[in-house]
């Protein structure tokens, strides 16, 4: 047995723009145990329900995370809408789906770029982010904001996507698909990329299930969970199947996210094809909410749960967000065991960490 | 900008931001916006950084980390607060765990507004920071050349910081 020592990883670390701190217990070059400590970004935004009313909280909920901001807003709004019992107009449901899928695309492209940066392929990082800018342009064109675009309100959305804009989106989706095929060749077939990803950080199906992993991290280990199949927004009317891989290693995670971008392109095409013509975008709600609801949505990083409890006053009694990234931390610590120290930076990236929504 | 003689290195730390500004800081460095054409390079090492870019507000746990990173940077240095949370605390100002903007623990020179701050605004802030850094390092050099003690140089820079803060 070699000498044991502890190496601190983070909070400020070059591989990740966000602060996470992990104490790595190592024996020679091998990691024996990983002990995370969180709280560097904890803001306590759930406590803001005391000071903001339920309409304003939609904007606060969006700022849980800047990457999947639209989906956070959507999850919160759908939860409150269920308490009110209002029906969201059909067009608004489809619009939400289109924006949510655009968000998933830019999140996954961002992750692919960071992964490339993680294994030192800077050119690939830049290429992935170049493609991502096209998706951000679509978000900016349709809503006015690049990342955080508060279009969700209780009862629907406040902005419409015109027919001309839909044509531009479809054209851009074709372009992105073409460019993605080029990127895919490098990410999934390149020899040196494969040597960094294949067989590293394996989580088996049983482990993924027992540790409560979520999203592409769980799907890469063969657990077929996708909250979109529950059929919120317009997902119930669209045709898709969760993308699952059985390998459970870093390569499988890369594969799953890559394929999910294609799936998002397909879902956007389906949604634009089926979107009903309708002038109302939001159903107005009257009074204050009273009751409680659990809402589950599938974010780019996995299943997020919104618990909202209202008591008939403008201020909610409790809002609780369970984010996928926090659920993935036990899986990460299990995965880090028995790996080489040099792979740590890459492995932390493969769960798609988003510390701001982990700690809220 | 024509007079830039050095290439300042940039250190980015995420205070307690929602990630929106962090991602935009990274996007500003990628070729679409390309902040590197101003001679700025992103580094992960505070000991080699000249410009400290902070996103998000300060909370009770990261206040020490931010202070430590600031102290580890060599003089002269420039601090840029990116996004409304780093400027004032923003939407999270009333949260129980937030102390306020970045200036509640370290002196901030340049404030970049926005939620999330757009890459164009971030680059504008970086360009201003490069100019300020140039000015400060010239003053620093002059003092050292005159045979001033490092302590004296330190004080002069501190004074200058207070003026630009006001």
Notable characteristics:
heterodimer; A: 360 residues; alpha+beta; Cytochrome-c3 Hydrogenase, chain B; three-stranded antiparallel sheet; 8 strands; globular; B: 166 residues; alpha/beta; Rossmann fold; five-stranded parallel sheet; two-stranded antiparallel ribbon; 5 helices; 41% helix
In short:
Chain A contains twelve helices and eight strands. Chain A has helices at residues 57-62, 69-84, 90-118, 122-143, 163-189, 191-197, 205-210, 215-219, 250-274, 324-336, 344-350, 355-359; strands spanning 4-9, 21-27, 30-37, 152-153, 156-157, 290-299, 302-311, 318-322.
Question: Could you characterize the architecture of this molecule?
Answer:
The complex is a heterodimer of chains A (360) and B (166). Chain A is of the alpha+beta class and 360 residues long. Chain A has one domain: Cytochrome-c3 Hydrogenase, chain B (Orthogonal Bundle). Chain A has 12 helices and 8 strands. Chain A has helices at residues 57-62, 69-84, 90-118, 122-143, 163-189, 191-197, 205-210, 215-219, 250-274, 324-336, 344-350, 355-359, and strands at 4-9, 21-27, 30-37, 152-153, 156-157, 290-299, 302-311, 318-322. In chain A, strand 7 (302-311) and strand 8 (318-322) form a beta hairpin. Chain A is globular, with a radius of gyration of 21 Å. With 166 residues, chain B is of the alpha/beta class. Chain B has one domain: Rossmann fold (3-Layer(aba) Sandwich). Chain B has helices spanning 20-29, 63-72, 84-88, 119-145, 150-165, and strands at 9-14, 41-43, 51-55, 58-59, 78-82, 98-100, 110-112. In chain B, helix 4 (119-145) packs antiparallel against helix 5 (150-165). Chain B is globular, with a radius of gyration of 16 Å. The two termini of chain B are 24 Å apart. Mean pLDDT of chain B is 79; it is low at 155-166. Chain A binds chain B through residues 11-15, 17-19, 39-45, 47-48, 51, 59-60, 63-67, 69, 110, 125-126, 129-130, 133, 136, 145-148, 354-357, and chain B through 12-27, 30-32, 43-46, 56-57, 59, 61-62, 65, 69, 91-92, 94-98, 115-116, 118.
